[in-house]
Write a structure and sequence with these properties.
The chain contains nine helices and no strands. By secondary structure, the protein is mostly helical. Helix 2 runs parallel beside helix 4 and helix 4 runs parallel beside helix 6. It is globular, with a radius of gyration of 15 Å. The N and C termini lie close together (11 Å). The N terminus is likely disordered.
């Protein structure tokens, strides 16, 4: 829950909880994957006192995939880190692998949508995030990601609506 609240104090707590989980079980792939997501999110948001190191994000995601190559979460977080490291071809392969492993997991398509925003294809991004929303209308981050995609497409009223929904869902 703290992972998805996307502000400094909650993210700092998510870091602590995930690092503790890894201490207790170093083979817990999803903990490494979500730790990668914390590093990537902190890099994006630039919170004071929260480490947003993309190299650590990439290393954590790679560790997650090494521990469980069948984890869609691990491949999604690897794609997310690769996207922000501007390794778009690698990211696309990671997201495609995640989608093949878990075609019903909304977060795969939501984060893949952000990848396509970064890769300058907002129409494709919106298609993927729309799919994520269909799969899970309450998936964390989907409304925020879709709002940003509408913004990049110049669809400002729709962007505001989605971003307001995202703000209401993330206390």
């Amino acid at each position: 829950e703290r992972y998805y609240q996307c502000f400094g104090a909650a993210m700092a707590e998510a870091f602590e909880l995930l690092e503790r989980a890894i201490e207790l079980d170093p083979e817990f792939a999803d903990a490494h994957a979500y730790l990668s997501g914390c590093h990537t999110g902190a890099h994006i948001m630039q919170w004071p006192g929260v480490d947003g190191d993309l190299d650590l994000a990439l290393a954590s995601a790679q560790k997650a995939v090494a521990l469980d190559s069948n984890s869609a979460v691990a491949h999604t977080r690897l794609g997310w880190a690769q996207t922000w490291k501007h390794r778009y071809d690698d990211a696309e392969r990671s997201f495609d692998r995640a989608a093949a492993l878990a075609p019903e997991l909304a977060e795969v398509f939501s984060y893949q949508g952000v990848h396509y925003i970064r890769a300058c294809d907002p129409e494709r991004a919106l298609q993927l995030t729309t799919k994520a929303l269909r799969l899970d209308p309450f998936a964390p981050q989907v409304d925020y990601h879709m709002g940003m995609e509408y913004l990049f497409l110049g669809r400002f009223e729709e962007a505001v609506t989605k971003l307001e929904i995202a703000r209401e869902r993330t206390p």
